[in-house]
Amino acid sequence: MPEKLIENILKARVYDVARETPLDFAAKLSARLKNRVFLKREDLQPVFSFKLRGAYNKIRQLNKKQMAQGIVAASAGNHAQGVALSCKKLKIKANIFMPKTTPQIKVDSVRAFGAKVALIGDSYDEANMRAREYSKEKRMAFIPPYDDKQVIAGQGTVAVEILRQATSRLDAIFVPVGGGGLIAGIGAYVKYLNPNTRIIGVEPEDAASLHDALKAKRRVTLKQVGIFTDGAAVRQIGKEPFAIARRYVDEVVLVSIDEICAAIKDIFDDTRAIAEPAGALAVAGLKKYVARTKIKNKNLTAIQSGANINFDRLRHVAERAEIGEKKEIVFAATIEEKPGSFNKFCGLLGKRQITEFNYRYFDSSKARIFVGVELDENDTHVDVFKPLKLAKIKVVNLTDNEIAKQHVRYMVGGHSPQIENEIVYRFEFPERPGALLDFLTGIGSKWNISLFHYRNHGAAYGRALVGVQVPSIERGAFEQYLDDLAFTYQRETKNPAYDLFLA
Question: Could you tell me if 177 and 210 are in contact, meaning their C-beta atoms sit under 8 angstroms apart?
């Protein structure tokens, strides 16, 4: 199999539409990490993503009859744009199924290339199912996003360029992983020529399909995946990619949302380009790997895989980047409710920059405050908390608490002691007309909503923190109602951020 795949990679037809992208030296990252870091700039493709390579190579393999009939694809973004541009180049009719939750900027881009777009369902899975049905009904070729040998071969051309462009032997290549087509192509080609170069996959912590599959030694289906890194939000690694990856991938690094946001900032600082979350995965993984292994003076490459990010998501990225870079902590503190307490508290923080300060009266003896503090280069949360604890100020570190960062910091407004039978859930709502109203209508007609906070950052899904008054005897019926809604949810009633500021 290796020889045939290498042959397919070398014969791949991609440059009719794709371009050879540069391997740029990242000077600032290199200096900070004490390694030589290079970025493979796939964000500079005509569709701002590497996906164009595999899509075009697959379509180019079709016979004349198949091309004349037209093709079908399903995608939430980058694959769709690659297919659409490829079909425009080859003068082929393209029918692309996309979830209703797809950001309008991506839908408009696909249509601008002349493709016919059908918006189906709230998820990629629903759009994909309908696309496959349509391809059978119309006898049109289906172009998969990653689980195909010719798609993998097209993505493998990234590795051909990297090895030709590198001026020194590469010690490791960090590759973002969604369905696995890119890492399969890169891993097979690089290991064939340079077996000592480590191939390291990078996935979001909440979408670890390859990581979990390698651990289980078989493909697994994740119960749910996070949607922040939408370009890598895949429930199951592809069959073909996994067969290749299990042979050639050395390890997989998992990274958090905050670490991804920090990596987007790192890429901007070095290139002035803005990566999408999936596009920054590899840099986030590279940084985490260097911190863990303490390696120095190595040649490391990260695939900067895409730049299809909605402008309004940048606010969320900026908010989380400092935490991801370990330059900010957020915490709760309980201080005395009397004159001079604030001054005393600020004095204990020293000259550190306070980035956030939220306060609400709690009772006559104490006040609870939500605080953000900027860390100095050698500072840690231990250094910040030590003088506070010596002064007998109770602190709770909320830096890794998702509802604290996503919701509570924007709604610190005091407790409601008269609320009874309140249970709190964190939801992800599909960002489509009517979804939120449907949810509120269903709950509001049966149970009282006692707390609500909703945020969206230009993504396919918005996030809500919801408190509902549900008598204990009705808890089973309520959770059955939530299950029937089929929205992702998690109970947060025992979350310390909720308990400190909202309960």
Answer: yes
Can 2-50+149-322 and 57-142 be said to share one CATH topology? yes
Q: Are 350 and 494 in contact (CB under 8 A)?
A: no
- Cα–Cα distance, 62 to 459 (Å, whole number): 34
**Residue written as token pair 């993505």:** 155
The per-residue pLDDT string of the chain (503 residues; one tens digit each, 9 = 90 and over) reads 578 999 999 999 999 999 999 999 999 999 999 999 999 999 999 999 999 999 999 999 999 999 999 999 998 788 999 999 999 999 999 999 988 877 777 888 899 999 999 998 877 778 889 999 999 999 999 999 999 999 999 999 999 999 999 999 999 999 999 999 999 999 999 999 999 999 999 999 988 999 999 999 999 998 878 777 777 788 899 999 999 999 999 999 999 988 999 999 999 999 999 999 999 999 999 999 999 999 999 999 999 999 888 777 787 787 777 677 777 888 988 888 766 676 788 788 877 777 777 765 566 677 777 888 888 777 788 888 888 888 888 899 988 888 787 777 777 665 666 678 888 888 877 666 566 666 666 665 677 777 777 766 555 566 777 888 888 898 888 888 888 776 778 888 888 877 777 77
Helix axes 149-165, 239-248, angle to 10 degrees: 40
Q: Which residues are catalytic?
A: 51, 305
- Can you tell me which residue has the tokens 């900032």? 265
Instruction: Tell me how far apart the alpha carbons of residues 436 and 353 are, in angstroms, rounded to a whole number.
Output: 38
Q: Domain residues of the chain, as ranges?
A: 2-50+149-322, 57-142, 326-400, 417-501
Its CATH architecture, for the domain 2-50+149-322, is: 3-Layer(aba) Sandwich (3.40)
Q: Domain 417-501: give its CATH code.
A: 3.30.70.260
Please state the pTM of the whole predicted model: 0.78
How far, in Å, CA of 465 to CA of 414, rounded?
A: 16
The superfamily CATH assigns to domain 326-400 is ACT domain (3.30.70.260)
16-47: b or e for each residue (b if 16 or more CB lie within 10 Å)?
ebbeebebbebeebbeebebbbbbbbbbbbeb
103/125 Cα distance (integer angstroms): 16
Q: Centre a 10 Å sphere on the Cβ of residue 220 and count the other Cβ atoms it contains.
A: 18
- If one counts every other C-beta atom within 10 angstroms of the C-beta of residue 324, the result is 23
Helices marked H in 221-299: 239-248, 257-271, 281-293
Architecture of the CATH domain 57-142: 3-Layer(aba) Sandwich (3.40)
The structure tokens 């870079």 sit at 325
Share in percent of the chain as helix, strand, coil (round to 5)? 45, 20, 35
